[in-house]
Structures are given as structure tokens and as C-alpha cells.
Amino acid sequence: MGDNQALSCALENASQVIPVFILDPRLLNSPGVSEKRKAFLFLGLQAMDASLRQRGSYLVLRQGEPVEMLNHLVAETSAEAIFAEPDVSAYASRRDGKAARHLPMSWAGSPAARPPGAVLKPDGSPYMTFAAFRKAWKALPFSAPGAFSQAPDRISTPLGIETLLIPSIQELQGLEEFPSGEEQAQARLEQFVHGLPSFPDQPAPIYRYAEQRDRYGLPGTSRLSPYLRFGMLSGRQAVSSALASIRDAPDDDARLGADAWLNELIWREYYLHSLANFGVAQGGKSHGRAVKWVNNSEQFAAWCEGRTGFPVVDAAMRQLFQTGWMHNRLRMVVASFLIKDLLVDWRWGARLFMQHLIDGDPAANNGGWQWVAGTGMDSAPFFRILNPVTQSIRWDPSGMYLRQWLPELELVPVQFIHEPWKMPLDIQQTASCKIGTDYPAPVIDHAWARQRALLAYRQPDI
């Protein structure tokens, strides 16, 4: 509620406000829904309701077709206006358009810090490449309210409006790392940009972001993506915090760290704008659109279940299934392995991620997968094929992360932790890790798979 532009507009225009959230069955029952993401949402709604009640209000919850439910509420309450934040997906755009035709809608705010349409070429067309988008994005003035964290002290809401109980939580495992709600989002942002009060001599994590953000075994990132996904933290507040950290950085290295985080936020903006302008299937490069995918279902299952025989891939996928989250570096590694090593259509992986990620968002998820696949507007070149072994050695040299998620490798010596199939038989016995029995042998030879992928991308119709 601290930077909710729709709520602010409603409070400016009315003496009484009815906070409403509608559970859309089409979204809740979608095959791409994540049970953990739903649990995170429901817990967030509980926290919002509690916060509203502290301010003399409460959350009105309904379930059904959104425009129909809003029509019923308008009739019940004689509401004169509805203030809401527009979304950018194709479904949301159709829904919002229908609402605008049938209801007294007023739109305010955006999931992005700069809403779609605010960053355009001089001729009014959208930018295709990220570099050009970022340059234009940074050139625009940025002004936002200062008191982001200050929600209204009092919200007057009519009593007696019928509301549903917030659904019970079915899937809590893994959510311990991501307590839901705006209060948790604010606390996490505060810690990231200002550090822990108990360690005043330590630089804030944002100032070490550039050097630590790829070290997936360390707490080097903000882990704010689920809160941004559900609006518990606004894009404007995240950007404002990054800009303030850049301004107040104690030295050049610290400034580099804060600017690196801002760069990641601008990637989020770029994907939101791209989704609004071009839809999920971004146009752009021809590479990958006509690739003759192998789509081996057994290899895809091994990838999903974390048994490819490549520890960094398996550890990341097991973390995803258990917690609903994965570090961004690992998202690139496992995506590259699926697309380039196994030649599985990127849409298979994107769909699987949406079924499990707490922060699953059509814009960032599809944008990231197309970036790796080389099919989006501004993507990695088709010949960029990440080596899972070298990635693992570079970013987790001790294998600490691997041992956390692959207990069968706990006793494997560090010189073999990234390539356990190279262990001699006597060391396999000592480590209680027999390859092919306790831990799988590699499903594919990376060097061979790399050459196959290059050929498939260069000659997609063969």
C-alpha cells in the first residue's frame, strides 16, 4: 500500500474506499499455475487484510469472472468509480479493455517503474534492443514520491460488504525463504540497500552486487523478485532505491554494484514493455524459430527431475521444485542445457518454470528463455552455449551449493564435485557415490551436444 497509485487516486477522489481483490478462476486454474505461487499470493492477501484492518478497513475478496464480479460490487455498494493498475499480458489487456467498456474504470500506475509507452524512439515506435532501451530509459527524468513506505494511517470502508475467506494454503514447503506480504518486502529491500544494523561496518549488499550476483551459493542478490511480481514492492520504489544508492555510494566499486542492480531492474522493465508491445512470442531473430528440436521426453524428464548427471543442472532443478525459486545465473545455465545441449524446445522449459516459480511472470520468464534460445528481440547469439561444468567451477568453486541440494555428492572430493563421472572407482566407493547407481551418469556429452546445437541453429531446416 506504500506505493499503490490506484489506492492513492481512490483516496484523493472519495471519502470511502473499498479495497477489492478478485480471484480469477481462469488464472487460478491455469495449467501454468504454480501451487507455491498461489500460496505466496494467498499469504500476501492475508497480510494485506491484516494491514487494512489496522487502518479501519478490510479486504473484500471475491472469486469469479472479474468484470462480472465488479459489476455486482458496483450494484451492491453504489460505487461511483473503480481505480486499478493495468497489467501488460495479452489476457490482462483483454480483461482490462472489457472492464473499461462496461465499468467506470480509472487506471493508475503500472507494474513497471516507467509504464509501457513511456520509453519510445523519437518516431514513437518501441525499442527492439535492450542497449538502446536502457540508454533511453536512463535519459528520462525519474521522479517519484519520497515516502514510499508510508501507507495511509486511516482508510474508511463501509461495513458489512460480503467477502470470501482467503483460501487455505495447500503448499507451504519452500516458502520459508520468502515470507509473503508488503512488510516483508520492505524489510528485505531495507536490508539489501542499507545493510544490517547489527553490522554497521559491513557494506550494504547492493554495493557488493556486481561482484557477488553470479555466486549462486552466496546471498548476493536482493531476492525481491516474488514481491515485485505481486506488487508487494513497486517497481518505482525499487528503482528509486537503486538510484539513491548510486547517488550515495561511498566509492566507485560500490557505485558499480548499485548500478548493476539498476541494470537488472531495467531488464525487468524491458521485458514488461516488450510483452506489452509485442506479446509473449517476441519477434526478432530467425535463429531458433525453425530449429528441428529433438524433444526427447526421457531427457526432458531427467532435466525436470534433477538427474541429468551434471551437478549444477541437477542442484538447480531440485532447488526449483523444493523452494519455487532459482538464482538467475542458474536459470541461464539450466535453460542453455535444455535448449542447446538437449535440443528441447524452449517453450517446454518456460512452461515448466511457470508451473513452479514463486516469481513466475510471463514477461520476465518468456523474455529470459527467449534470450537464451536466441529467438527474442535482443537475445544471446545462437552460438553462446554455456558449459555447465565451467559455469559450476567458476561460480561455486568449492561445490558448497552442489552439496546442499545433492546430498548424494556430500562426500565427493572437491576435485570431482563438478564432474563426478570422472571419479575413479575406488574414490566412488570411498565417497559412497557410485556413478549410475547413487548418482546418474551424464545424459549427454556436452562437447558433442555443443557441435550438434551449432549445426542445428546454422541449418535449422535440416
Describe this structure in words.
It is a single chain. This protein is mainly alpha-helical. The chain has three domains: 5-109, HUPs (Rossmann fold, 3-Layer(aba) Sandwich), CATH 3.40.50.620; 112-146 and 183-278, Serine Threonine Protein Phosphatase 5, Tetratricopeptide repeat (Alpha Horseshoe); 297-458, Orthogonal Bundle (DNA Cyclobutane Dipyrimidine Photolyase, subunit A, domain 3), CATH 1.10.579.10. Helices cover 48% and strands 3% of the residues. A two-stranded parallel sheet has the order 1-2. A two-stranded parallel sheet has the order 3-4. The protein is globular.
What characteristics describe this protein?
single chain, 462 residues, mainly alpha, Rossmann fold, Serine Threonine Protein Phosphatase 5, Tetratricopeptide repeat, DNA Cyclobutane Dipyrimidine Photolyase, subunit A, domain 3, two-stranded parallel sheet, 20 helices, 3% strand
Task: Summarize the topology.
Layout (H helix, E strand, L loop, with lengths): L4 H9 L6 E4 L1 H4 L6 H20 L5 E4 L2 H12 L4 E3 L5 H13 L2 E3 L22 H10 L42 H13 L14 H4 L12 H5 L5 H13 L4 H27 L18 H9 L5 H13 L4 H14 L4 H9 L7 H12 L14 H8 L4 H6 L19 H6 L15 H13 L4
Brief overview:
48% of the residues lie in helices and 3% in strands. Helix 6 packs across helix 11 and helix 11 crosses helix 16.
